[in-house]
Amino acid sequence: MKLIIVESPHKAKTIAKYLGSGYRVVASKGHVSDLPQKTMGIDVKNNFKPEYVVSPEKKPIIDMIKKDIQHCDAVYLAGDPDREGEAISWHLANVCDIKEKKVRIVFNEISKKAVQKALLNPREINMGLVDAQQARRVLDRLMGYELSPIISQQIKGGLSAGRVQSVALKMVVDREREIRDFKPQEYWTITAHLIKDKKTASLKCEFVDIDGKKLKVENKQTADSVIAGSKAGEWLVDSVKRAQSFSKPAPPFTTSTMQQDAISKLGMSASMVTQIAQRLYEGVEIQGEGQVALVTYIRSDSVRVSEDAQREALAFIGEHYGKDYCPKRPNIYATGTGAQDAHEAIRPITLERTPDSLKDKLARNDLRLYKLIYDRFVASQMSNAVYDTLTVHIVSQSDKKYGYTLKGKVCTFKGYTSAYQSADKEESAKELPNLNEGESLTLKEIKGEQKFTKPPQRYTDGSFIKAMEENGIGRPSTFEKTITVLYKRTYTEKDGKFMKPTELGELVCDQLVKNFPDIMNTKFTATMESNLDKIEEGNIKWYDVIADFYGDFHNKVLAVKYQGNKVKPKEEVTDIICEKCGAHMVVRDSKYGKFLACPNFPKCRNTKPLGDAVAKCPACGGDIVKKVSKKGATFYSCTNYPTCKFISWDIPAPYLCPDCKSAMKIVKSKGVTRYVCTNKDCKHSEDAPQENKDNA
Questions:
Q1: Taken in order 628, 632, 634, 637, is the CA torsion positive or negative?
Q2: Is 160 within the bounds of a domain?
């Protein structure tokens, strides 16, 4: 009997399906040992030696694994193919006293072929990967353990700070202040509608230059002058440029680009994308087949694709789209600087499992994300899209030549766009009539429009992940976790689909920047990530990296600690009177969102939900209010909690389903409001009463 140890029960179930009775596959359920929870657990005087302990909940698992080892003639450690998976394998080897050296097996995908190949090629545990993980863990513990008490002391208890989360918070705060400080600049656009003949539609063109010199129209006076001069002239086609352009497909997904496109195209949160992707990688239950893994490893910043996968893709494309859709040479994509190229880009394990073949076998969101990954990979291996482009320069010739331009593009070969189009690569098309140089045109209408420059947008979860990646903050495995912790700590909040810093978040950021400016910048975090890569490669010792950082940092912590500098968050005072003591209630934060509280706490403990009721509770008739979970997701609950524990992810209807007594949700589409049962097995749906339609 041979024993294979993985992290996840789902992964264990999937792998066990591919192997015969001679194998036993068990799950450690993540890390089996870690730094202690109640002490720092790092010996700073002894090369920062970590004090690893086995948590009580993991002792039964360890005991089970040790018994299994005694009855097996070989042991394989099959953690994920990254630093974290390597560290888990190392801890398992130490805790379970595994003496054999070549016990580590890795695979980029959980398929029968990949697992069997890995079993034929076991290797020793890679201490470069382990040391890189140790360095990150120790560094994060030191910073969190010393920074968090400082912030809690200066502001309020229970706050946290960290190497990645605090710099990420500063990015959100900086963007918010950039928006606040933004001063809009006036500018004008001038649009002329021209007619070629009575048979063709008018041509919309934009003013660009005077006598060939580009001019930015910044005020009404200039706009009026351009319009008057243009009206007085004869309109002629000055130049016509025809060309062919190509649009290249985007590379297959990395963790970052997968999250960005899923957030943008599918409306998912970052945490939802991570959870679903993990299921698709570890295996999902498919009727008639059992546990099946569908995609390759989902924590990757590489765009590399194996030759086998490329060959399969080209054969698939040729069969389903035609030979013209296969590039003459396979598409090769360059992995960005600083990316780890240990494993492939995210792709389907096999193209034989089309999204259509899984329509009735996967949960809705699982299928949507799988289709996104599938289509993106297929498109990445296809030919370029081809366009005929037309750029026309038109002048109104009077005392000066007032130049206008119009552009058009017509797709002549769809190429990869037949399969997939990235959110940032969407192409607009505008077909133009045939125009020739020297041709006369007639002015139908010309007008100027005053506009103002706009401030930068707040980050969405997707654009924030992109920004973190561009600034070298964190790794694919930490992007979503960082966003989640910012919401959980109420340092940020949702404003529609955008991230917004809370008052508390800005206060925490300001205190950290004031006291620790050196570590509160993206350069420090990016440099540390680069050092972790060097540790992995064996170029530097992990404890030397920690030593170079810790001395000055610790001294600064001690200096700040004894300064005091207590600051208090400003409270928003409302006009709502506390009925128990008569004070004006204030707005306060909790991990579930904002609420109203009496300022005389703890003498008066009166609290109220903030905001108007969105519906009546179907369970008790109380008010339903909107709240935000610790992960930033919106939900609805009853104000009579804890007496009434009704909770819903959808706005509930005011009464239960008459057929099955389940909760109903309010659904509004195209101006029609309906009550729809939330029980998937019940198809009850009804028009909402007129008086309740405004609740949706």
A1: negative
A2: yes
